[in-house]
Structure to design on (657 residues):
């Protein structure tokens, strides 16, 4: 169906990452499939504990014992099967073709080396650069990510930099080798709101210039709205909805996505309290039978408790893991308001 | 003895301490510079550092500073057991040897034994602790149980047993034995530190950027383990000094006629009430040295405290 010109950069199929502790198994990621196309920004949203970070760590094979990527999972990047690479080959991809930035710029840098040294180190890990060349490129990179006076800043230590500058330094490290894919795991969560916007702008601008793809992981739909072109919504280790960003905000299908959208504060909002999704994410060691969202869902009926929903096609590029797609009439009869606490049985 | 050498020793000590004091003035964000500044501003620790520098200089220059040979017995009838005087500042012992000269040479022996032994301890302990902490899992459990077992054997008894059987023990072997029985504490400190560093964000970030285990160990783990190791080395030196002095006092450590502070105390032990100077001066030397290392160790602990780096 896809022509070679639009072949995906990253293909994830049936990815399952489970954590084995004694006899219990935490199925943190349970059968996740998605694509990232070249030059595209894909948003991956979900609550804490839904498996979005584990998904991103799995792509780079950074899962440590007792976690394990289960057999049958497939991750292909630039036509190579990442899961069958040996250690040396996957290291050559990390930080080089696929880079990652993290939530905490405060603790992601090494306190005993200068910022420039750490940015330059990435080039030395991957390249043949001499110390001098690597340093010069590091300063240049710091300039590109908008660090003022980069030559002086490069000689400073992480604790001398503000949070925003540290995150810029992390981005400089991640982009040093011009990766094809940048995985940004909550890149702005630890930052002030004004700095958040700056960093998102910077990422968009760099993407334009370098032509990379971004997988943006966040719990904040506002961040997604600003940056992504396509959105994956994750719940309880699965993707529950996938849609182009406009479609998602205009016509979300899955009740969980609906709940997330309703929980967002908006300009001109008269509500005194934000709407919340009742309950909490269930434990990954015991996902509910049937639809994993049914005990928090306002529409849930017998079928939801008995039968796990497949991904239904809703529209172009829009899929949803909800039986409402098969029985749309039921959407008109929620048996309790979303914020109304425990759902009564139908 | 050349008075000029004494002047040179004093100048050298002043220069080194002055350099440390000035290094503390530098306005740099380097964590090491910050630590130096904090150390300099801690009066007790800085004084201790100066005392240690002075002791090291004296130990190094002992052959040129000492007025007499440490083993010369010029007249064992008329020059023995002389009380302190201008000619013999610390008096002479039962064999007419100059206690002052022996104390200077003793500094040489005692300090070099302690320093070399601690190098052995710190290397073995750091390597062992780093491996246990980084590999983790069952390997870590087994390695740490071995440490527990080793720590349940009293060190001094073990050393006395070995040294008594292997007499006279050459100095390098004594150093090795002291070093190899003193690394358990260091390895525990290092392991705990590595264990907490291993899961730090910066290590995950480095791994995500393609760093290998070796690169992570050298760049991210070991440099950040250095502070506690430096502190335990400093405190460890004080400990080894005491152990060596104890062993030498018991006659199984540094053997006469070579002077160590421990065996010098033994020389005067029989007549401590009347010929007090023979034991008292080497004893004071031990007290001052051990106290200096302990004070410096405490000062370093405060100065290198990572929780204060952001302050």
């Amino acid at each position: 169906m896809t022509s070679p010109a639009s072949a995906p950069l990253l293909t994830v199929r049936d990815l399952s990452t489970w954590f084995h502790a004694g006899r219990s198994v935490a199925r943190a990621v349970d059968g996740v499939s998605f694509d990232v196309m070249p030059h595209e920004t894909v948003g991956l949203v979900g609550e804490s504990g839904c498996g979005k970070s584990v998904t991103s760590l799995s792509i780079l094979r950074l899962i440590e014992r007792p976690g394990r990527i289960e057999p049958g999972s497939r991750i292909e990047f630039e036509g190579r099967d990442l899961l069958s690479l040996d250690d040396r080959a996957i290291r050559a991809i990390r930080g080089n073709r696929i880079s990652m930035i993290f939530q905490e710029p405060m603790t992601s840098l090494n306190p005993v080396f200068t910022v420039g040294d750490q940015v330059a180190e990435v080039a030395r890990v991957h390249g043949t650069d001499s110390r001098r060349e690597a340093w010069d490129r590091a300063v240049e990179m710091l300039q590109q990510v908008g660090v003022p006076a980069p030559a002086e800043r490069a000689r400073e230590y992480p604790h001398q930099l503000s949070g925003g500058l540290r995150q810029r330094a992390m981005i400089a490290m991640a982009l040093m080798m011009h990766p094809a894919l940048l995985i940004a795991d909550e890149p702005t969560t630890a930052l002030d709101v004004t700095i958040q916007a700056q960093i998102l702008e910077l990422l968009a601008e760099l993407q334009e210039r370098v032509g990379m793809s971004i997988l943006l992981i966040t719990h904040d739909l506002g961040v997604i709205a600003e940056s992504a072109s396509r959105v994956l919504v994750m719940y309880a280790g699965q993707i529950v909805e996938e849609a182009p960003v406009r479609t998602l905000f205009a016509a979300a299908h899955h009740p969980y996505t609906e709940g997330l959208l309703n929980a967002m504060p908006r300009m001109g909002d008269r509500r005194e309290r934000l709407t919340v999704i009742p309950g909490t994410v269930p434990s990954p060691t015991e996902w509910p039978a049937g639809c994993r969202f049914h005990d928090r869902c306002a529409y849930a009926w017998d079928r939801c408790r008995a039968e796990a929903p497949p991904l239904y096609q809703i529209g172009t590029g829009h899929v949803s893991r909800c039986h409402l797609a098969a029985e749309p009439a039921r959407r008109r009869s929620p048996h309790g308001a979303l914020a109304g606490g425990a759902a009564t049985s139908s | 003895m050349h008075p000029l050498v004494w002047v040179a020793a004093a100048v050298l000590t002043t220069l080194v301490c002055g350099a440390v004091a000035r290094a503390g003035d530098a306005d740099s964000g380097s964590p090491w510079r910050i630590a130096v500044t904090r150390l300099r501003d801690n009066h007790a620790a800085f004084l201790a550092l100066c005392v240690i520098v002075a002791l090291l200089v004296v130990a190094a220059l002992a052959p040129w500073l000492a007025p007499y040979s440490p083993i010369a017995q010029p007249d064992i009838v008329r020059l023995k057991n002389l009380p302190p005087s201008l000619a013999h500042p610390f008096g002479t012992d039962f064999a007419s040897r100059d206690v002052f000269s022996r104390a200077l040479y003793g500094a040489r022996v005692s300090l070099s034994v302690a320093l070399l032994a601690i190098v052995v301890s710190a290397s073995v302990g750091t390597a062992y602790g780093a491996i246990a902490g980084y590999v983790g899992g069952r390997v870590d459990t087994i390695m740490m149980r071995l440490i527990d077992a080793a720590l349940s054997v009293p060190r001094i008894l073990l050393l006395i047993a070995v040294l008594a059987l292997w007499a006279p023990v050459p100095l390098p072997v004594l150093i090795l034995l002291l070093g190899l029985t003193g690394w358990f504490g260091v390895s525990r400190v290092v392991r705990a530190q590595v264990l907490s560093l291993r899961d730090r964000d910066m290590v995950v970030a480095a791994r995500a950027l393609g760093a290998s285990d070796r690169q992570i160990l050298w760049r991210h783990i070991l440099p950040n383990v250095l502070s506690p190791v430096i502190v335990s080395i400093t405190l460890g030196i004080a400990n080894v000094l005491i152990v060596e002095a104890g062993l030498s006092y018991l006659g199984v450590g540094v053997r006469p006629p070579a002077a160590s502070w421990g065996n010098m105390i033994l020389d005067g032990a029989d007549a401590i009430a009347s010929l007090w100077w023979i034991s008292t001066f080497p004893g004071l030397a031990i007290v001052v040295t051990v106290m200096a290392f302990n004070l410096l160790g405490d000062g370093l602990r405060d100065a290198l405290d990572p929780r204060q780096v952001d302050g």
User: Anything to note?
Assistant: The two ends of chain A are 42 Å apart (CA to CA). Chain A touches chain B at residues 60, 62, 65, 91-96, 99-100, 102, 104, 107-113, 121-122, 125-126, 156-157, 159-160, 170, 173-174 (CB under 8 Å). Residues 336-346 of chain A have pLDDT under 50 and may be disordered.
